[in-house]
Design a protein that fits this description.
- The structure holds 2 protein chains of 2 kinds.
- Chain A is of the alpha/beta class.
- In chain A, the strands form 6 sheets. In chain A, strands 1, 2, 3, 4, 5, 13 and 14 form a 7-stranded mixed beta sheet that branches. A 5-stranded mixed beta sheet of chain A has the order 9-8-10-7-11.
- In chain A, strand 16 and strand 17 (455-464) form a beta hairpin.
- In chain A, helix 18 packs across helix 19.
- The longest helix of chain A has 69 residues, at 306-374.
- Chain A is rod-shaped and about 210 Å long.
- The N and C termini of chain A lie far apart (154 Å).
- Chain B is of the alpha/beta class.
- Chain B is 42% helix and 17% strand.
- Chain B is built from 12 helices and 11 strands.
- A 6-stranded mixed beta sheet of chain B has the order 2-1-3-10-4-11, sandwiched between helices. A 5-stranded mixed beta sheet of chain B has the order 7-6-8-5-9, sandwiched between helices.
- In chain B, strand 1, helix 2 and strand 2 form a beta-alpha-beta unit.
- Classes of the chains: A alpha/beta, B alpha/beta.
- The A-B interface holds A 116-117, 119, 159, 162-163, 222-227, 234-237, 281-282, 284-285, 288, 319, 323, 326-327, 330-331, 333-334, 337-338, 341 and B 1, 3-4, 7-8, 10-11, 14-15, 18, 21, 51-53, 240, 243-247, 249-251, 253-254, 259-260.
Chain lengths: 684, 326
């Protein structure tokens, strides 16, 4: 409302002065509404139109005020003849709407002093101690009038941009709207930390009493002693007065001439509060700034063609392409090699798997072989071979540590009978159980071996350094084994009884050779068996002698049988009246060296060596022959002969037949022959 | 497996090579440089660049010196890496055994250096038998030599008065001299006092040249970035002075102790070469500046300023000039 009244006021005034207002050509001057209110702007510039009307009587100049957007629209649609605006707005319209080159650049007054340019001011409250320089502005609330304000935003934004702060992102913009006083008030009221205004605003407000300069502090103040007001940015040329292309050239000349000579019209300049106008300034810095900030008209990314890119980055592109090609090539090659390798790898894995399986099999086989070589398959105990190894080692160790060890020979009494009668399966079970029991009786490091059949050997190492203590300890262990193995055996459904005989031989170092040691233990076992079984016997040297004598006797006896060294004697048997009843056949051995040997001595040897069968046969036959001789003589025809037959001989399957055939051969009466089974051996 | 590893190594190697290609510009560690300048219009672009944040002081440190003599001293003492100097000063310093190289031409005197004589001496030949103020040093010698060359006078036909530039006006006023080989701001003063300009450097183009010269030892990879930045910032500052004089004058005025309106007049008689001109001056088969240097050195030998054979190897380096102006 105010505006329109004012306009009409000016129009009436002008018509009064000129007398014929309607004969004049109307010329419109569009002015940007920037840092001041509409009334202030209108009040400031109305005298200019008035003076121009007076100076150029053919024209009627009219001033219209527009905000930036509206002004652009007015210029684009050519609804005005002249434009007076700020540099950035001018450049925008220059580029977009074909506004002509400037006619003149404003020369302003600051604090009564002519200035050639203006700048932007960045300020905060004096007590805002955390904002010292531009960098401190990051994240702060900044009051601005508008982003289109050249001195009230764009200049400051450019300074921030130069130090790497993005004015759109790194600070919080708060639009307070025109005029710039709003910005100052927003900062003072603490609605914002920082304010952007064009240069001179703060000082003007101070003069008008609206602001106490002590309450604010300028950020990034430029050291320009000759510039009358504070600035925070570089300076830029002032507002520009430009014509539209369609504006009459003569009118443009006249207006330009008027403006450029305005500083001579002191009174008018004073009223307008300006120094005057200069020839147009170079607006390149403004253009550069807008370009750098990507502000209109440079807010669109420049369109580069591929050719531009190629021309500019030719070498870089070539290098990159070659590099990429090399990398791709190597990549493909690597992939190819990798694929190939993968296939090979798969094959290898398969082969490997096969090998592994084969290896496992081989290992198992080797283990089996090793087990077969060194272990008894039935009981899993070491066999003779391993025992020999261990024994050799044990003898060496013993010779080093001087500790007695012991070798135990064990066999199960009557095992053969049990095996034959109950079957091999039961026999095997018994052996397995016996092996377990033996193992339970010895220490972990001791060796229990099975030599075959029912023969077990125990090697007890490092028992003691003292022979008596060692003997006692071994006796205890042996006895424990004997007792444990004598416990009843549960074999399947049956309970079986079995006892062991154990022969023990102590050793120390290499006193005895391996063979001797084995033999000693064997002899001890033999003795144990001879002594009645289920016994433990220690080897002693006498025992050795006995065994050797026994062996020699057997050899001699064998020779004696073949060389007929045996003699048969008949001992007459009489009744109570001393009448001869018959004779008992008695075998005597006339040894070529030892002389007559008692049957008590050699019969057991003959029995063991089975020579008894030969001897027994010979005795029977000799007795039959004797009977047949006696039968021919009346005196002796009634006599009988008693022959001792061993149990072995008696157990011969053809014993009865052979006796009968002999009786027949010698035509003897069977009753004449009396046989007596040796009572002692009857049990066998 | 062995093959696989080898391939990987080659790939890694190639990748590293490619990376190195792109990164080679970044190595080795960039080092800053320091440059001494005294107040002279030709060096103003650097100060402007610093004042407006276009010069990164982490890369290039500007050291303000009082005069060219002061700059030479700083350079000789090893306190700066380079300085704003005239071409003849560069030649002289090199003769003293301090190898320095020109990386940028700041300005070419085209009338700024002149001979001003009392109005009574109305032509150049008239200086015969008169007292002529001339500064000690190459610049004065060069100007005087050229003046004598032009007039055909012998050196004993004039009376040279050794006097520094700041004392010229006073000596003129006291009648101690009849003419002076002078430059701004003294030249303006003398002209105001009724002096007449009989000769100026426009008649000897490309001989009085102000340059930025740095120790040849800093022309290495480590300082390359800083040197490129120095030259680029200078050119930006120059552009700022030309395109935004309204801002620049406010920044320069305090240094020259002039008003913003007056300060642009100091550039009178000076050609400020832009990038293209610098390329012409410093590069090519026989660069213009090299030709000038040969002539200048010859004059200096004749004037007895130089005594040894002058070596021009490595006098100029155009490799820090940017490809294109920002």
């Amino acid at each position: 409302m105010n505006k329109s009244y004012f306009c009409w006021g000016v129009a009436i005034c002008l018509s009064l002065l000129s007398g014929s207002v309607f004969a004049r050509e109307k010329v419109k001057i569009a002015i940007l509404l920037a840092n001041q209110s509409e009334q202030e702007v209108q009040r400031q510039w109305a005298p200019l139109a008035a003076a121009m009307n007076k100076d150029m009587p053919n024209y009627h100049f009219v001033i219209n005020l527009y905000d930036a957007k509206k002004l652009q629209e007015i210029v684009a649609t050519r609804q005005t003849d002249f434009v007076f605006t700020n540099p950035s707005n001018y450049l925008l319209m220059f580029k977009q709407s074909g506004l002509s080159a400037p006619l003149a650049t404003l020369s302003d007054l600051e604090q009564g002093k002519m200035v050639r340019a203006y700048g932007g001011v960045i300020f905060t409250r004096a007590d805002q101690s955390d904002i010292k320089n531009l960098e401190d502005m990051r994240g702060k609330k900044v009051a601005i009038a508008s982003t289109e304000a050249f001195g009230g935003y764009q200049m400051q934004a450019y300074e921030l941009n130069r130090i790497g702060l993005n004015p759109r992102e790194d600070i919080q913009l708060q639009l307070s709207g025109q005029p710039h006083d709003n910005v100052v008030n927003a900062v003072l009221a603490q609605r914002a930390d920082i304010g952007f205004v064009r240069s001179g605003i703060l000082e003007s407000m101070a003069i008008e009493g609206k602001l106490d300069l002590a309450k604010i502090r300028i950020i990034n103040r430029q050291n320009l002693p000759d510039y009358p007001v504070s600035v925070s940015t570089r300076l830029y040329p002032d507002w520009t007065f430009a014509a539209l292309p369609q504006t009459d050239t003569q009118l443009k000349d006249e207006v330009a001439a008027f403006l450029l000579t305005l500083h001579d019209k002191q009174a008018l300049a004073q009223v307008l509060q300006i120094n005057g106008f200069h020839v147009p300034a170079d607006y390149t810095p403004v253009e550069d700034m807008l370009r750098e900030l990507h502000l209109p008209p440079f807010d669109h990314a420049p369109t580069f063609t591929l050719v531009d890119v190629w021309l500019r980055y030719r070498w870089l592109i070539v290098v990159v392409l070659i590099s990429v090609a090399i990398i791709l090539l190597l990549g493909f090659n690597t992939r190819r090699v990798n694929r190939h390798l993968k296939e090979r790898s798969l094959e290898l894995n398969l082969a490997n798997l096969q090998l592994q399986e084969e290896n496992v099999e081989r290992k198992e086989m080797a283990e089996k072989i090793s087990n077969l070589a060194f272990y008894d398959p039935l009981t899993g105990l070491p066999n003779r071979r391993l025992l020999t190894h261990r024994l050799n080692a044990a003898l060496s160790i013993s010779s080093r540590n001087n500790l007695y060890g012991a070798l135990l020979f064990l066999d199960l009494d009557n095992f053969k009978v049990l095996n034959d009668t109950l079957g091999h399966d039961v026999g095997d079970q018994l052996l397995i159980e016996a092996a377990k029991r033996i193992l339970s009786c010895v220490r972990e490091g001791d060796t229990v071996a099975r030599l075959g059949g029912d023969e077990f050997v125990m090697l007890l190492e490092g028992i003691d350094g003292n022979i008596e203590i060692a003997s006692n300890k071994v006796a205890l262990i042996s006895e424990k084994i004997r007792a444990t193995l004598s416990e009843p055996y549960q074999l399947g459904d049956h309970i079986q009884y079995s006892t062991p005989s154990i022969g023990v031989s102590l050793y120390l170092g290499n006193e005895k050779s391996l063979e001797v040691l084995l033999k000693s233990a064997d002899i001890a076992l033999y003795q144990a068996k001879n002594a009645g079984r289920n016994l433990v016997r220690f080897f002693d040297p006498d025992m050795q002698h006995d065994v050797e004598a026994h062996a020699a006797l057997e050899a001699d006896l064998r020779q004696a049988v073949s060389e007929r060294q045996l003699r048969l004697y008949y001992q007459i048997q009489v009744d109570a009246d001393m009448h001869p009843l018959g004779a008992e056949a008695l075998v005597r051995w006339l040894h070529p060296i030892r002389g007559l040997i008692s049957p008590m001595e050699f019969i057991p040897v003959a029995e063991e060596s089975k020579l008894i069968l030969d001897i027994g046969g010979w005795v029977l036959e000799s007795a039959c022959q004797q009977l047949s001789v006696w039968a021919k003589d009346e005196m002796s025809s009634q006599l009988s002969i008693a022959v001792n037959v061993s149990a072995q001989q008696f157990r011969q399957a053809d014993f009865v037949e052979s006796v009968e055939s002999m009786l027949r051969t010698y035509r003897l009466n069977a009753f004449a022959a009396e046989t007596g089974v040796d009572r002692k051996r009857g049990a066998e | 497996m062995r093959v696989l590893h080898t391939k990987h190594n080659i790939l890694e190697y190639m990748t590293a090579l490619v990376c190195a290609l792109f990164m080679s510009a970044c190595t080795p560690q960039p080092q800053p440089i320091s440059i001494a300048t005294h107040v002279w219009p030709g060096y103003e672009p650097l100060s402007i660049a610093r004042d407006t944040g276009m010069l990164d002081n982490k890369q290039v440190k500007l050291v303000g010196s009082l005069s060219a003599t002061d700059s030479i001293k700083l350079l000789e003492e090893g306190r700066v890496d380079g300085a704003g100097l005239t071409l003849d000063e560069v030649i002289r310093i090199r003769e003293k055994g301090i190898p320095i190289s020109v990386v940028l031409v700041c300005d070419i005197s085209a009338g700024a250096d002149m001979l001003v004589a009392r109005a009574a001496i109305n032509k150049l030949q008239g200086i015969k038998g008169h007292r002529i103020a001339v500064e000690d040093g190459a610049l004065g010698a060069l100007m005087l030599y050229q003046v004598l060359q032009t007039t055909g006078l012998n050196s004993d036909e004039i009376t040279p008065v050794s006097i520094t530039i700041d004392k010229q006006v006073e000596a003129w006023k006291q009648g101690k001299i009849d003419a002076a080989i002078t430059y701004e701001p003294a030249s303006s003063e003398l002209l105001k006092l009724g002096g007449k300009k009989l000769f100026d450097s426009r008649q000897i183009p490309n001989f009085i040249i102000d340059v930025i010269a740095v120790r040849t030892s800093v022309l290495d990879e480590g300082h390359a970035e800083a040197l490129r930045h120095l030259v680029a910032a200078y050119l930006q500052g120059l552009k700022h002075i030309i395109t935004n004089p309204d801002d620049a004058v406010y920044r320069m005025a305090p240094r020259f102790k002039l008003t913003p309106e007056q300060v642009m007049s100091t550039f009178k008689g000076l050609v400020l070469p832009n990038l293209e001109t610098n390329i012409q001056l410093l590069s090519g088969d026989t660069p213009t500046v090299l030709k000038s240097a040969v002539v200048v050195a010859g004059i200096m030998h004749q004037a007895g300023i130089l005594h040894q054979h002058t070596d021009f190897d490595g006098l100029l380096s155009a490799k820090y000039l940017p490809r294109q102006e920002k």
